[in-house]
Design brief:
By secondary structure, the protein is an all-alpha fold. It has one domain (2-82). It is built from 3 helices and no strands. The chain has helices at residues 2-24, 27-32, 38-82.
Length: 83
């Protein structure tokens, strides 16, 4: 059970990184939040991610993390089996 929780948190992290990258490449970010100044853009990317990406993609993140948890668990079982 402890490994499953660890796999779940790894899956959440992977999905958060994936949605962050996909959210930054969105046209709405470039139109509304992109300023061209690097330190303002860092804050604007976080603001865009928290207020626009997470509210709409939370279910995608959760389902993806559950799927990745099952996949990581299956891979871990196969690795232990063939060791």
């Amino acid at each position: 059970m402890k490994k499953m929780i660890c796999y779940f948190f790894i899956g959440i992290f992977v999905m958060l990184i994936f949605t962050f990258v996909m959210g930054i490449t969105d046209d709405a970010f470039k139109v509304k939040y992109y300023e061209g100044v690097w330190y303002k853009d860092i804050l604007n990317t976080l603001k865009y991610y928290i207020f626009w990406v997470l509210p709409y993609w939370w279910l995608f993140i959760l389902i993806g993390a559950i799927i990745l948890t099952m996949l990581f668990n299956r891979i871990g079982i196969l690795i232990r089996k063939f060791k």
